[in-house]
Amino acid sequence: MNDSFKKRGTSEEAKFKHDNEMQFKIDARRDKMLGLWAAEKLGLSGDEIQTFAKKVVVADLEEAGYEDVVRMVSQSFRDGGVDISDDEIRAEIQRLQSIATEDVQNDFPKALDGDHGRVGG
Question: Domains in the chain and their CATH numbers?
Answer without folding.
Answer: 12-107 (1.10.790.20)
